[in-house]
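Lecture notes, continued. The same structure-token format from the folding unit now serves as the input rather than the output. Read the line below as a description of shape only.
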């Protein structure tokens, strides 16, 4: 089993992660970026990413923490919206063979899970920690 880096590198990374000093204002902006998924939920995925993008634009030069959280939220919400649209179109097409009707609860559950994960990200940020979406974090960082 291969690990990423030596144990000293892992310890140094964890210590750097713990030493991250985040102000109350930064936490608030990061929370708003992640909670904007609720806005996406009531606007069929349209305004949530816009809100996250605006937060990223406003704070990208002021706070690396807020910029990374807002950018992650933006990418996550775009991916969720596109996949959700595809899923609901497939369910609508499957209505022709009645199975689409049976898939509606599954579609609702998938959307609620995506919203819940975005809210969990906001919760982690409220604790003053850095939230990392899998795959998305690696896309936006060069660490």
């Amino acid at each position: 089993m291969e690990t990423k880096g030596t144990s000293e590198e892992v310890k140094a990374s964890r210590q750097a992660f713990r030493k991250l000093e985040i102000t109350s204002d930064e936490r608030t902006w990061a929370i708003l970026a992640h909670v904007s998924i609720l806005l996406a939920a009531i606007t069929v995925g349209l305004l949530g990413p816009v809100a996250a993008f605006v937060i990223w634009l406003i704070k990208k030069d002021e706070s690396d923490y807020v910029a990374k959280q807002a950018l992650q939220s933006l990418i996550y919400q775009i991916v969720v919206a596109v996949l959700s649209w595809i899923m609901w179109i497939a369910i609508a097409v499957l209505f022709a063979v009645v199975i689409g009707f049976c898939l509606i609860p599954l579609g609702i559950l998938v959307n609620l899970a995506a919203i819940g994960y975005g809210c969990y990200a906001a919760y982690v940020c409220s604790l003053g920690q850095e939230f990392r979406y899998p795959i998305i974090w690696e896309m936006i960082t060069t660490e």
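Point for the exam: The chain has six helices and no strands.
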